[in-house]
UniProtKB/TrEMBL annotation:
Stretches assigned to the Alpha-L-rhamnosidase concanavalin-like domain: 357-457
Record SUPFAM superfamilies: Six-hairpin glycosidases (SSF48208)
Signal peptide from the UniProt entry: 1-18
Domain called Bacterial alpha-L-rhamnosidase N-terminal: residue spans: 175-347
Alpha-L-rhamnosidase six-hairpin glycosidase domain ranges (all copies): 462-806
Species annotation: Chitinophaga qingshengii
Xref: InterPro entries: 6-hairpin_glycosidase_sf, 6hp_glycosidase-like_sf, Alpha_rhamnosid, Bac_rhamnosid6H, Bac_rhamnosid_C, Bac_rhamnosid_N, Ig-like_fold, Rhamnosid_concanavalin
EC number: 3.2.1.40
Catalytic activity annotation: Hydrolysis of terminal non-reducing alpha-L-rhamnose residues in alpha-L-rhamnosides
Protein name, UniProt field: alpha-L-rhamnosidase
This protein's record includes keyword Hydrolase: yes
Enzyme class, first EC level, given as a word: hydrolase
Any GO MF annotation of the entry: hydrolase activity
């Protein structure tokens, strides 16, 4: 099967006819999305998958047709682009090369391929994309709002309070409608309504940005929501990150307040007779804050008074005489652009597991899982009754909510009943991180079904699966899964529950790679790189947090390094080089800034956070006070700077900046020499003060001389086993390369021990203590709660990477990005008997399922069409290896390469294989 997609990615599913007998085209994508609306990439990239069980099958040629109507496409009238037969094996990121595309253009496309077995596929099923509003002049709409507070609002308090704004406009459509498209942005957050119905399934839209630089708009096909005759368009605006959630005196870092909520919306209507019409935001709209959402805030919750509901407010005929005229307001920032990543949605539900009445009228629900979102409330009672819902990750010994680790966040939703039978409500402009819910004010005694959890995060596919015979690993993986998706909020956040929820760069540098096996996070992280560039200061400084809702510029190396590291991840994991090309100049500017300001004698002297949250010497401490446990900032700064120079050298080559290649290489050699001169203890064979973290990075970043590498590594192994009793010794920085370094230097057994420990400090310890996500601290149940999130992913480091690449044996070859070439080398270690892993790459599903018994090793793998894999089969002798029950030597589909360190190494093409030793 072939999977098509455009870069935005258009995904189209194609079913090949019986003429091929072996394959089908599926998952067509444009700009990495299936059938996206309103993209602003004028030369979008198209991709597809070829699905087949046939071995060694590759694409040899393709043909793409793009038409302006579905009818023309079906008739093979490619009025926009007909690529003709192109001799190429490229099925990812094929650049559209047809007629120039204009605002609002609809594009329909299909693809067929010729494969290495001499066959030609049928055409795929059609896929589509549409263009957004590409020029500022395409917008006839104007930004509207009301730049003032309403009665009851508290815009200047420490705990700011702002009601939602409701906006509406009546309009008349005189003819039969062929197509209608809405382009809308509402900041901080919006919901769009037409004729009484909400548009789309998105929540908490649009995605968060550095609003003074760029704002996202979303595109919706609203044809089915409009009618000939009278219509009404309405919107509700929440605060989001646009209006500050805290005022002066909060004790938090400096907070950006962009202003009062505002919106812009344009509806383009095409009538059946070919004429057009536009409905736009202008001064004819009306606004009120007298609706039911009396307050909304991501930290503090939402207050909804159903007695103030306005039936029919977004339908024709509603009396809005008491509403105010809107103001024409300034635009939020420089750019209004299409949002290329998906919005947030309700992605899952969670049923309550237990309910306890801890004192009269106070009910505590246990949802059984720490997750992020909100709850839907079902209630019946008298008009004016108010039910309050509070949220927490833990409970005290008496069963009450443990609130200390939430700091100033009030995390309280309030619902006032209207008294009209059974009422069902859920908030729209807040979210919570929680396992437990306190319900007070409920009329009568609620049952388990009175609330239901809504799991809310970015609309992205789950691309990976991973299970083993070890239940500790399985539980930690499950905890990671819940924690990762709980911290996707249009940006990767550090925590979802307290008065923070920020996009800390350092938390995700390597963690993002592990996440990318579980979720298709490509577009989210590509978007986040733009946030980082948008927050960069003119002189080059990159912040610790992006978007810069907290204005923190401490000029680290370890935190902003995520900028380059994640761009490299997107290239290797997804085959997408555009983030590198797009941000190359910005990255180069930052590297020069850090060099000019902080480099002395080729040592980068600055790093602020160190190996953040390493296990302290006492269980009640948050940060260690022992100098022997700390890794110096100048060591980390210089090691990271060197590593980033190697990335910049790669990026310069990739982007054609040939003059820069030599510059980065030459500087890197000087930094490496200075690094070893300053930090390498030649006699002892260790780096700096001999912390495992220092020695890890000297090896992981290839700074240590080859003659010293084994000696340096022995210090890592010895200190882990002896000084740290076989337990974790690093914080989030050292953990970025901990598991892979141990494994790459032949001590996968130590990595396995760290992965399966259940005593402190370890991931298994968290799970044993009842955690269902990942803690912020190794000692998260004993340290001061002031910094003790129960849902943090930074300490995962490279654990999930290690799960998939080493235990699961699914690894991209950096030389052929996007899994065009795959490295499959299972780590068979300890008492591990089984691993079942799968990852849906851009080329298709990769599977690896191995089982070890006392007498045999069995391994079933799947390699996608149009790729190849280097496969390492554990064995003492290649002669013992069989595939499909027959000696591999007799199999023409498999090429033997060599024996290496207890593995027989083979080259294989696509297909399913069953190895046995």
């Amino acid at each position: 099967m072939i999977r098509q997609y455009v870069l935005l990615l258009l995904f189209i599913t194609v079913a090949c006819t019986a003429q091929t007998g072996h394959s089908a085209l599926t998952r067509l994508r444009c700009e990495f999305r299936e059938n996206p609306l309103g993209i602003d990439a004028t030369t979008p990239r198209l991709s597809w998958e070829i699905n087949s069980d046939q071995r060694n099958l590759k694409q040899q040629a393709y043909q793409v047709m793009v038409a302006s109507s579905l009818a023309d496409l079906k008739a093979d009238k490619a009025d926009l682009w007909n690529s003709g037969k192109v001799s190429s094996d490229q099925s990812l990121n094929v650049v559209y090369a047809g007629k120039p595309l204009g605002s609002g253009d609809a594009c329909f496309w299909k693809v067929k391929v010729w494969t290495s077995d001499g066959k030609e596929s049928a055409w795929s099923e059609p896929a589509s994309w549409s263009m957004g509003l590409l020029q500022p002049s395409d917008w006839q709409a104007i930004w509207i709002g009301l730049d003032s507070a309403f009665a009851g609002d508290k815009p200047t308090d420490t705990f700011t309070r702002l009601s939602a704004r409701y906006l509406r406009k009546d309009f008349h459509l005189s003819k039969k409608i062929k197509k209608a498209t809405a382009y809308i942005s509402g900041v901080g957050l919006y919901e769009l309504y037409l004729n009484g119905g909400k548009t789309g399934k998105d929540v908490l839209a649009p995605g968060p940005t550095e609003y003074n630089k760029r704002t996202f708009y979303n595109t919706y096909d609203i044809t089915s929501q409009l009618q000939q005759g009278d219509n009404t368009i309405g919107a509700v605006l929440g605060n989001g990150r646009y209006f500050s959630m805290r005022g002066n005196g909060s004790g938090l870092p400096p907070i950006t307040n962009f202003g009062y909520p505002k919106m812009i919306c344009q509806v383009n209507v095409l009538y059946e007779d070919g004429s057009t019409d536009k409905i736009v935001t202008d001064n004819s709209w009306k606004v009120t804050a007298a609706g039911p959402v009396g307050a909304n805030n991501e930290y503090d919750g939402e207050e909804y008074d159903a007695t103030k509901e306005m039936p029919g407010w977004s339908k024709p005929g509603f009396n809005a005489a008491s509403w105010l005229p809107v103001q024409l307001v300034s635009k939020p920032g420089d750019l209004l652009v299409a949002q290329m990543n998906n919005n947030i949605r309700v992605m899952d539900t969670v049923k309550a597991q237990q309910i306890k009445e801890i004192k009269p009228g106070v009910f505590i629900y246990d949802m059984g899982q720490n997750f992020v979102g909100w709850v839907q409330l079902k209630v019946k009672g008298s008009r004016g009754t108010q039910v309050a819902l509070r949220f927490a990750e833990r409970v005290n010994d008496d069963g009450s909510l443990y609130m200390a680790n939430l700091r100033s966040a009030k995390v309280t939703d309030k619902y006032t009943l209207n008294g009209n039978g059974t009422e069902v409500w859920e908030p729209r402009f807040t979210y919570h991180g929680f396992r437990y819910v306190e319900v007070t004010g409920y009329p009568g005694k609620p049952d388990l079904a009175a609330i239901e959890g809504r799991v809310v995060y970015d609309d992205m596919a789950t691309t990976g699966q991973f299970t083993t015979s070890n239940e500790v690993i399985n539980q930690v993986y499950k905890n990671a899964y819940w924690g990762i998706r709980g911290n996707y909020r249009g940006m990767p956040t550090d925590c979802p529950q307290r008065d923070e929820r920020m996009g800390w760069l350092g938390d995700r540098a390597v963690g993002a790679r592990g996440e990318s096996f579980i979720f298709d996070n490509h577009l989210l992280y590509a978007k986040w790189l733009q946030d980082i560039e948008d927050t960069q200061k003119p002189e080059g400084s990159v912040p610790d947090v992006a978007p810069s809702y907290w204005r923190m510029y401490s000029d680290n190396m370890t935190w902003p390094a995520a900028y380059l590291i994640i761009a490299n991840l997107l290239y290797e994991q997804y085959g997408d080089d555009q983030p590198i090309r797009k941000h190359y100049a910005s990255m180069k500017k930052w590297m020069a800034y850090m060099k000019d300001k902080y480099m002395k004698d080729y040592i980068l002297t600055k790093d602020t956070y160190g190996d953040w949250c390493m296990p302290p010497e006492s269980p009640e401490l948050i940060h260690s006070k022992d100098p022997a446990r700390k890794t110096a900032g100048d060591f980390l700064g210089t090691a990271f700077y060197y590593h980033l120079l190697t990335l910049m050298e790669r990026f310069a080559t990739l982007t054609g900046n040939t003059a820069d290649v030599a510059t980065f290489k030459d500087l890197g050699e000087k930094v490496k020499t200075a690094f070893n001169k300053k930090f390498l203890n030649n006699d002892g064979g260790f780096y700096a003060n001999n912390t495992p973290t220092a020695n890890i990075f000297s090896l992981a970043y290839q700074l240590a001389p080859e003659a010293k590498q084994q000696q340096v590594f022995r210090h890592i192994a010895d200190k882990t086993l002896q000084d740290y009793k076989g337990h974790i010794s690093t914080g989030l920085v050292g953990a970025e390369w901990l598991m892979r370094t141990l494994t790459n230097y032949g001590r996968g057994d130590i990595a396995y021990q760290l992965a399966t420990n259940t005593t402190y400090p370890s991931w298994g310890y968290m799970a044993k203590e009842g955690a269902t996500t990942i803690w912020e601290l190794w000692n998260g149940n004993t340290a001061d709660p002031a910094m003790n999130s129960g849902n943090h992913v930074m300490l995962l480091g490279d654990l999930v990477v290690w799960y998939y690449q080493h235990l699961g044996a699914i690894q991209p070859d950096p030389a052929a990005p996007g899994f065009k070439k795959i490295i499959m080398k299972p780590l068979v270690v300890g008492d591990l008997k089984k691993v079942d892993a799968a990852y849906h790459s851009g080329y298709g599903m990769i599977r690896s399922n191995w089982e070890k018994t006392d007498n045999a090793f069995k391994w079933r793998i799947t390699v996608p069409v149009n790729t190849e894999a280097t496969v390492y089969v554990p064995t003492k002798d290649a002669k013992n290896v069989k595939e499909g029950g027959k000696p591999v030597a007799d199999n023409k589909d498999i090429q033997f390469v060599k024996m290496e360190d207890g593995y027989a190494v083979y080259k294989v093409g696509s297909g399913n294989y069953d190895f046995h030793d």
